Amino acid sequence: MQNEPTPKALGRVLLTGGTGMVGSSVLSALLDADSVSEVISLGRRPSGRQHHKLTEITFAAFGDAEAITPHVAGVDTVFHCLATYSSRVSREAYEEITVDWLGALLHACETVSPSMTFCLFSAQGARPDGGGMSFALKTKGKAETALFKSNIARKFAFRPGYIAPSGSRGGWKLADYLFVPVQRLMPSIGVTSNELAISMLKTATNDPRHSAVLENGDMRALLD
């Protein structure tokens, strides 16, 4: 019987998008994780949380690799959860946020911390080959391509299906209420934001591969 791979400490972590639905769940999981020594949350607005591991930096220059670089120095793991809905911004803005901002972050990471682990919040149906009908999924595919072409040592893209918010139901949409009973019948349709966060941390800690794309089913398997 082969020995299990030694878990990798997450160490000093950089998180982007920590006030969004997914990012806030990832932030909670990171603050609870014993292998995390510090969380640097780089975001457009502060979360308002107080924790001895957490350093929050209000930051707007996501397209400027030079401005990002000082915040990446000495980082062991990145969770890039900064995202927006394609329906809420122009196509140009969506591509800038999804691809160009990621490219600047990757350049900064390659410059000062190429031995790190990088986890990218992507989307089910992302098309790195440029195919498909959806502009949003083509754009997500471009982002994945940029990640996997980088010289970062370990890199993972996560493609969840429907994501239901965890925690208080105050901000739930109708689809979120429908998700709960439907998921009992068809678990493969999606995950909650907390389940996505858990699968991301488990992958960064335990996955022996240097690079991989995790589909919704792969993430659900990590929850068993």
Q: How would you explain this protein's 3D organization?
A:
With 224 residues, the chain is an alpha/beta fold. Helices cover 40% and strands 20% of the residues. The protein contains 7 helices and 9 strands. Strands 3-2-1-4-5-6-9 form a 7-stranded parallel β-sheet, sandwiched between helices. Strands 7-8 form a two-stranded parallel ribbon. Helix 5 links the parallel strand 7 and strand 8 (190-192). Helix 1 crosses helix 6 and helix 3 packs parallel to helix 4. The chain is globular. It starts with 10 loop residues before the first strand and ends with a helix.
Q: Which range does the strand content fall in?
A: 15-25%
Order of helices and strands: EHEEHEHEHEEHEHEH
Q: What separation lies between the terminal Cα atoms?
A: 21 Å
How would you write the strand order of the largest sheet?
3-2-1-4-5-6-9
Instruction: Give the helix proportion (percent range).
Output: 25-40%
Q: How many strands, what sense, and barrel or not for the largest sheet?
A: 7 strands, parallel
Unreliable stretches (pLDDT < 50, length at least 5) are none
Number of helices: 7
SS-based class? alpha/beta
> What average pLDDT do the residues reach?
90
Summarize the structure.
This protein has 224 residues and is α/β, with parallel strands linked by helices. The chain is built from seven helices and nine strands. The strands form two sheets. A seven-stranded parallel β-sheet has the order 3-2-1-4-5-6-9, sandwiched between helices. Strands 7-8 form a two-stranded parallel ribbon.
